[in-house]
Amino acid sequence: MSSKIVIINGPAGVGKTTIARKLALLGENSACIHGDDFKHHIVNRNLNTVATGLGYKNGATVANNFVNGGYDLVLFEYVFEDESHLPKFIHHLNVDCPVYLITLWANQEIVLDREANRAGRERLGTRVLECYAAMEQALGKLGLVIDTSDRSPDEVVKDIWEKLEKDEGLIVSKPGTMKRLR
């Protein structure tokens, strides 16, 4: 069985974690990498002395390990605010499998409400609106956009799975190549 990597992108509160975990259930051998989990490894950080953007590199490294370990479906859920962030992840992939980019989207009110009501999570404050605005500007270049507004997670997952089966959202078909996004 051939492997595929699916990036689940979107602003905070849009449902990335929920959708990615449900999508992962559809693979025979699947893994879901939560980009937010990488920040828990950092104990102290002086931004003037350490590299930034390691979430992309770490996500790609873990995805490589899962694909090389025989996993057929690897999901990486993270925030790519615009297309310039994609090469930071793609560049560190060294596996021969397709990569798909799915950007989840919802209207701003829904995103703000979901973010404000997530249990057990630190609030992101103004960062939610900043991220939303940046992504809105770049939406046409962020792969396949799926609206999650007023839809159940199961409906969204079914929609994404059907589109993946048709290769919609494909951004890398072979190593070292990235499709130009609009």
Give the CATH class. Answer: Alpha Beta
User: What about the largest sheet?
Assistant: 6 strands, mixed
Could you tell me the mean pLDDT? 88
**What percentage of residues falls in helices of 4 or more residues?**
25-40%
Backbone structural class: alpha/beta
End-to-end separation in angstroms reads: 31 Å
Radius of gyration: 16 Å
Strand content: 15-25%
User: Which sequence of SSEs, written as H and E, runs from N to C?
Assistant: EHEHEHEHHEHE
Count all strands and give the number. Answer: 6
Report the uncertain regions: none
Net shape: globular
User: Which fold name fills CATH's third level, the topology?
Assistant: Rossmann fold
CATH architecture name: 3-Layer(aba) Sandwich
CATH superfamily: P-loop containing nucleotide triphosphate hydrolases
| Total count of domains | 1
Q: How many DSSP helices?
A: 6
What attributes characterize this protein structure?
single chain; 182 residues; alpha/beta; Rossmann fold; 6 helices; globular
